[in-house]
Amino acid sequence: MQRKIRFSAVAVVFGSCADRYVLEGYSPKKSFEEMMESAKKVADLEGIELVGGWHLTSRNAREVVKKVEDFGLRVSVIIPELWSSAKWGLGSFAARDKKIRQDAIDEVKRAMDLARETGCNIVAPWFGQDGYDYSFQANYIKAWDLITEGLVECADHLPDVKIAVEYKIKEPRTHCFIGTVGKVILLTKEVGRDNVGVTLDVGHALEGYENMAESVALLKRFGNKLFHLHLNDNYRLWDDDMIPASVHTIEMLELLYWLDKTGYDGWYSLDIFPYREDGQRAATEGIEWIKALFKIIDKIGKEKIEQVIEQGDATNASALLRKALTENL
Amino acid sequence: MQRKIRFSAVAVVFGSCADRYVLEGYSPKKSFEEMMESAKKVADLEGIELVGGWHLTSRNAREVVKKVEDFGLRVSVIIPELWSSAKWGLGSFAARDKKIRQDAIDEVKRAMDLARETGCNIVAPWFGQDGYDYSFQANYIKAWDLITEGLVECADHLPDVKIAVEYKIKEPRTHCFIGTVGKVILLTKEVGRDNVGVTLDVGHALEGYENMAESVALLKRFGNKLFHLHLNDNYRLWDDDMIPASVHTIEMLELLYWLDKTGYDGWYSLDIFPYREDGQRAATEGIEWIKALFKIIDKIGKEKIEQVIEQGDATNASALLRKALTENL
Amino acid sequence: MQRKIRFSAVAVVFGSCADRYVLEGYSPKKSFEEMMESAKKVADLEGIELVGGWHLTSRNAREVVKKVEDFGLRVSVIIPELWSSAKWGLGSFAARDKKIRQDAIDEVKRAMDLARETGCNIVAPWFGQDGYDYSFQANYIKAWDLITEGLVECADHLPDVKIAVEYKIKEPRTHCFIGTVGKVILLTKEVGRDNVGVTLDVGHALEGYENMAESVALLKRFGNKLFHLHLNDNYRLWDDDMIPASVHTIEMLELLYWLDKTGYDGWYSLDIFPYREDGQRAATEGIEWIKALFKIIDKIGKEKIEQVIEQGDATNASALLRKALTENL
Amino acid sequence: MQRKIRFSAVAVVFGSCADRYVLEGYSPKKSFEEMMESAKKVADLEGIELVGGWHLTSRNAREVVKKVEDFGLRVSVIIPELWSSAKWGLGSFAARDKKIRQDAIDEVKRAMDLARETGCNIVAPWFGQDGYDYSFQANYIKAWDLITEGLVECADHLPDVKIAVEYKIKEPRTHCFIGTVGKVILLTKEVGRDNVGVTLDVGHALEGYENMAESVALLKRFGNKLFHLHLNDNYRLWDDDMIPASVHTIEMLELLYWLDKTGYDGWYSLDIFPYREDGQRAATEGIEWIKALFKIIDKIGKEKIEQVIEQGDATNASALLRKALTENL
Question: In this complex, do C214 and D253 lie within 8 Å of one another by their Cβ atoms?
């Protein structure tokens, strides 16, 4: 099978990952240059995904982008700053405060401007703070109205820049509005703009009890809406942001197959939090897994896989995977 | 607040519930008459939901309906037989076998005919067997095509009979295609018929990490598609089919509030599996909970609740509920 | 590495699996002879685990055992009938009714007698019905007293027959008393008899968010208490009883490694529910997976694995597994 | 029923809660004095639980304790600093590095010294960093040996100061060694010191699919080992650290009943993370819930509750709770 995989990584992979207990991070703080220095050493890595608020602000954006390019990398995607400062604690696009909402919309527009400037032409907003924690805390209908309106305004700002909405069922809110593949597809339909699609994050799908391959298939069926992809893994109950394929090896294989099958041509971007690992090595390992699994797919061959899928015989499917992963020792 | 609640129960509540270990059921088998005898004794119960295959077949349907009426009850909803015999093991509307698919569609049409005859005018198909268990076992896109086509055919069969599709994320398949509120709304949009809507089952929503109130709100927003309701409770990881409100008391309160708020006027139907309980007493208890929680809502008053929702202040929301549930001792 | 794996399967694998919806089973009923005919054809299968109530009763026990042997197989383990009839609905060893409790104890003793007669010398009681569903329904302390006393009585009945208690966190009760590896080890300590140990079921461990390898290690550390093993797989939230390694391939590898490392010398027994699959093929596939994964372990070599464990470096661990599973294509 | 509830709160309740996205915290940083100023205003709050590393260090400990007392509060419990700095990223008591292990042990000893000085006489170590994230990353047996040895050393340091080990199934590691009530009881048995017991955190129990009342009962049965209690709530899949009773109202009622029944006489300490709420109001609300639920228990009366538990009749149990929570409107 002929395919060209473009690998990317969220810049945070190369920084010092923190959690709510170790706020200083599990490893020494690094300058952005040091992070790019690490990234540069990862074989096959071409793109860097920048997180607004953490890696770039409206002030330093151009300078940061230049630094990325100085290290032989390019900006793959820009993530607008909608979830990393206290300001958004009660929501961004769906905030009750009109001023906050407008700031959020402006933040996405600025990210879009920058995306056009850098040539990546894609932003990936994540409405992680738009949700609720307790019963009787949210007006669900109004929230959807506001998120839809905000996205329409952004989409129309620059119709040639893609907006790839990332969905997630929980965290940082106990419930996020745009939580599942079904909901995010509904949202793209409601927005009704060609440049508004979806970012599928493997771990987010898993913690919503989704099978990633199925989610990719649905995104294809409902308007070819898979614009961007975040790779990682977890134990299905939380967004552990681990090295891809380290837990769900076979489901990852199926995901990769369906990406191929549906003609996905975007980035394969690592979104992992290597709290206790070295970022450069973890990123390398993640890319090696993806490449190795694609080789397994090619080893089996598209025809045999399609045959197994068409039959729907679980034992045959299992045998095919088992042989591909364990034979010719 | 003025409302008229019509209570119903799935007939199985009054039978002998079995699971995969105790296939004979946890209590002695009962005749249908004995089941109705029990149902009749449940205060405020008006409707009985009949499950195709278990309580009625195309052959005995009219006779069964008459029996229900003889006991002073009426048929609330008819559930087509799409998941209780081995025939559907590999799917109903999405089965690979064309003959099976057509049988499934015909089953729904027959249920619709009967629903019109009985005057209940609503059927609740559940595609529990349409899904997959293993990776590389399903063609997700084709499955959606088939389910959509089948539903269109059914919807056009009798446009004045409602089809309330019940969604569920897992069981009996490890993954069911029509699994979440987002997906089922997408399905109704794809089908595009006024008589095709949704059955919300509380336990199914909970095991998909949904907040039921939010799901009701979305069903309202996207076409007023809540056609039917199944009440029960569980521990959020499996469809335990327990007495409603026995675990998630406050989320149940919020659900009831949003049913009111969105003008839901369908049945409040108990879908519990009282494996080790007496069905009549368990049903009575479930209805008592719902009535009691509506009284709590009225005690607080719509205005105060709306105020709390509009504020979005979690502590205020908590205090309101706490006081309503625990004060005036 | 030199090891002798003895494969076994629960007899139900070769029957017609039912669930709470399709009570007749997903495939035609089979006679016990037909089941053994299938089992006989599974390469490397030596043992059959018999479930009391389903496959043998106190009346037909000797006859059934003979049939197993006529097919060239032998009884690996006997599972006492404590959970497959309505009688135990409110508990077996922990039932409130003293008569029921004594019947349950007698059932285990009879199974022990038979285990000695057949020479397998091991029974695997599972207290699936001993638990609770609702709050305020159980006296937890009393339940533990009763289970402990019952086990002491059984243990002393035949000290040379092993009792391998199987633990499970939920199903058929929403909460089972003997639910986790920690609890079952506590139980063995409380019982304090050499012939009382544990059955580890992979799927039960997974649905309790256990890592199976860790559970094996703890069973080793606390008295070498792993007496028996059930192999299967699931999606971590429910006991889906799937083909082993079909979901959690890498965790299964780690489990097998620790079984070796801790010197486990009991049966490798398949406890799967191939509802929609052919039992013979599914069992064969399960055994092939285990054999293939042991080859992967041998390919890597004990030394390298120990090294990786001692380092505790996640990226190295990942790389080792990746290479073993995907290289030399 | 006569009881004296002593309420406490973890100091963090009154600070600025951060998560891995909003590292600066969701509200403005507060000085310790400001935090105590808030705490002081919470009706019925007597104790403050101090977290090593966050609120006190070996250097400022005495000064901090004095400040607490200046505000009319007292130190309820001291949590040793074993999980809030990068140093412990690969473990504390179970770290591979001997120096780190000794530092961790010394940290607990220092906390014990301070606990004696302040008169609270109790420390609550939490081994959150002692665990693993990936397969083949841990030597589970060795880890238990090390944790046991470390605790013995600490226990013997000051036999009159209680060590209340807090267990948690996951976070910050994807798997923590001391993860469930069963495991922590095993640990206390292995350590075998009278001054080593357990801290039960409601949310930790819930995310391990425990029923808190059952966990309290087991801690009673196995040595009267419940030394300390953390109150909060969550949605059962993650440690959301919400206001207690806001989700699992009825399970909280049952917990409180069993605390009474088993004679628990320690602190009722709030361990919530009010990211987006005002700490003072959230703490007040939490205490109000506990007081209100105890009133419900008293309203029902011990006799009736015991009767319901002894019967084990789920419908009766449900009715009792329903009436207590919703009648006399």
Answer: no
Query: What mean pLDDT is predicted for residues A58-87?
Result: 94
Enumerate chain A positions whose Cβ falls within 8 A of a Cβ in D.
17-28, 83-86, 89-90, 128, 133-135, 170-172, 174, 234-235, 237-238, 240, 242-243, 246-247, 273, 275-276
pLDDT in tens, A16-62: 999 999 999 999 999 999 999 999 999 999 999 998 888 888 788 88
Q: Look at C86 and B26 and tell me if their CB atoms are within 8 Å.
A: yes
Q: Mean pLDDT, to the nearest integer, of B58-75?
A: 92
At D79, give phi and psi (nearest 5°). -100, 115
The DSSP 8-state label assigned to residue B88 in this structure reads G
Write the DSSP assignment of D125-189 as a string of letters.
-B-TTSEESSTT---HHHHHHHHHHHHHHHHHH-TTSEEEEE--SSSSSSEESS-SHHHHHHHHH
User: Alpha-carbon distance A132 to A134, whole Å?
Assistant: 6
pTM over 0.90: yes
SS3 category, D55? coil
Chain A with chain C: Cβ pairs closer than 8 A: 95
Task: Chain B: give the shortest CA distance to residue A74, in Å.
Answer: 34
What are the chain B neighbours of A96 within 8 Å (beta carbons)?
310, 312
C-beta atoms surrounding A85 within 10 Å:
17
- Chain B residues whose beta carbon lies within 8 Å of the beta carbon of residue D292: 322, 325-327
Query: In this complex, which chains have at least 3 CB pairs below 8 Å with chain D?
Result: A, B, C
The pLDDT tens digits for C48-58 are: 999 888 888 87
- Give the nearest partner residue to A136 out of B144, B175, B321, using CB atoms: B321
Cβ of B312 within 8 Å of Cβ of A189? The answer is: no
Q: Span C7-326: which CATH code? A: 3.20.20.150
Instruction: Kindly report, residue by residue over A259-295, the tens digit of the pLDDT.
Output: 999 999 999 999 999 999 999 999 999 999 999 999 9
Superfamily holding D7-297: Divalent-metal-dependent TIM barrel enzymes (3.20.20.150)
Residue-wise burial string across C120-152, b where 16 or more C-beta atoms lie within 10 A, e elsewhere? bbbbbbbbbbbbbbbbbbbbbbebbebbbebbe
Q: A240 to chain C: which residues are within 8 Å by CB?
A: none
Sorted by sequence, the CB contacts under 8 Å of residue C107 that are 6+ apart come out as C52, C80, C81, C82, C92
The widest CA-to-CA distance across chain A, in whole angstroms, is 62
Cα C224 from Cα A234, distance rounded (Å): 31
- What residues of B are in contact with residue A185 (Cβ under 8 Å)? 182, 186
> Can you tell me the distance from the alpha carbon of A128 to that of A177, in angstroms, rounded to the nearest whole number?
8
Name the residue in chain C with its Cα closest to that of A300: C329
- Closest by CA to B253, choosing from D314, D316, C174, D249, is D249
Provide the 8-state DSSP code for D77: E
Pairwise CB contact (< 8 Å): A20 & D18? yes
D270: left (phi over 0), alpha (psi -120 to 50) or beta: beta
ipTM score over 0.85, yes or no = yes
The alpha carbon of residue B148 is apart from the nearest alpha carbon of chain A, in Å, by: 12
Residues of chain D contacting B326 with CB distance shorter than 8 Å: 292-293, 295-296, 325
- For CA atoms A36, A42, A43, A48, the dihedral sign is negative
Of D21, B307, D172, whose CA–CA distance to A173 is shortest?
Answer: D21
Report the distance separating Cα B195 and Cα A186, nearest Å.
Answer: 20
Cis omega (within 30 of 0) for bond into B125: no
A238: closest chain C residue by CA:
C209
Domain parsing of chain D, residue ranges: 7-297
Contact C253, C297 (CB under 8 A): yes
